[in-house]
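Intended use. Records like the one below are meant for learning the mapping from a protein sequence to its folded structure. Do not use them to infer anything beyond what is encoded.
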Amino acid sequence: MSKFNSAYLKMSERLWLGLAIVCIFVAAYFFITKNSENGLFVLGMTCVSGLMYGLRRGFRRKLEAAEAAAKANYKNQKDKN
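Structure written out for the chain above:
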């Protein structure tokens, strides 16, 4: 995985996490000051953001593990020759 891909994956992961955190505060604001219908909508967006964060994080971890396994396999093959 190139440095660009790794940086992109980490950036998008942090973006979704940041959006989820902001949505939590916005939902709390809507529940306190306005009607609960708006708060429920923003709370739903918080769940979507949290889900996307989890998916991105899992995807990045799988890619990093696959890359590490490929490098180890390549090194073992190189050492045998």
